[in-house]
Amino acid sequence: MIKINENYLKLEASYLFIDIARRVTAFTDAHPEREVIRLGIGDVTRPLPPACIEAFHRGVDEMADGATFRGYGPEQGYAFLREKIAEHDFKSRGANISADEIFVSDGAKCDTGNIQEIFAGDTKIAVPDPVYPVYVDTNVMAGRTGTAEDGRYAGLCYLDGTMENGFIPALPTEPADLIYLCYPNNPTGATITKDQLKVWVDYARENRALILFDAAYEAFIRDESLPRTIYEIEGAEEVAIEFRSFSKTAGFTGTRCAFTVVPKACVAYDSKGEKQSVHSLWNRRHGTKFNGVSYPVQKAAEAVYSEAGQQQTRALVDYYLKNAALIRREITALGFECVGGENSPYIWIDGKRDSWEFFDLLLEKAGVVCTPGAGFGKCGQGYIRISAFNDYEKVQEAMSRIRAALAE
Ligand SMILES: *Cc1c(COP(=O)(O)O)cnc(C)c1O
Question: Which domain CATH number covers 326?
Fold first, then answer.
């Protein structure tokens, strides 16, 4: 008899986006004449930068010619891309990361979800609340938790984010081996300073723990004092893995290219307490279960680092940042407290009422779709997330509608 992995039965069905879609459909059915503006999604809306498109096309043409055709590439990614990443994203920031410490993949979602496989079944996991759901659900699937009650799984260590701590949680008070951090944060838009990040790196070093640092929104950082990579913090290469993606940086959500940095100095321990190389384990895992990102896609990603690509991706991110600044300004003027919207495409707003109540109000009175914070964890209750991924004109219209709705 074939049996299932019963850990999957512990997963709380995520009704968040289904529920949003249901409420939006009910609204548009009832008011077909009203145009709904979607500021709820975590997906980009602008096309790929021209430099990437040109390189993408050239890559496809090479595949069409016997002389330049390529079959399987290296599982870890082509050297042309890994070297550019190491140079531009790390060495230029004073972070000593080399090309062979970079693993190119088809997404930071997959990587943040898969990485837990190389750690022990009894690893104590610490996750922020509110959180990107992938970190939690993949550990539930792997059997590292009990069942959920009140939206929280038994056995997980939740790190509470609040307006008071600026959504930078305090260190865990119970032992934690594997800690997920994401800055600039999804969903809150909060950013972390070097001093604040150093507290976590020091904790990990003192407690032989490991940090999984999701930097998918690194390109949105404009404040030069903020760390662009965790490896700007001294000693982080021993205790941190970093996840990056071209999704939000260069509009690759539908093109698929990302990378994970596993420094050779990064260690975890076997049952005898002996140090083991995390790089070797991830290399083994990646090579066994992954066969590389498509060649034209890696060429398109490489173009991000060309002079034109750098300028175009910066302009692309600036476009969303301008939307974010507008949202933040308007929301603040309306008297709400918020975080994010600077160095981040997300604005996290204290609605001073139930998340879904605020969601319904914005939908019904303003025809604007946001994301209820309660969908990201217990600490998200009372908040909503507004995303800057849309056209500037739509954002302007949405904000003036929200202003009018709240004045009623
Ligand atoms: C969008 C996003 C990613 C990127 O995922 P991809 O699979 O590379 O598209 C990773 N982490 C967070 C928190 C995100 O919001």
Answer: 3.90.1150.10
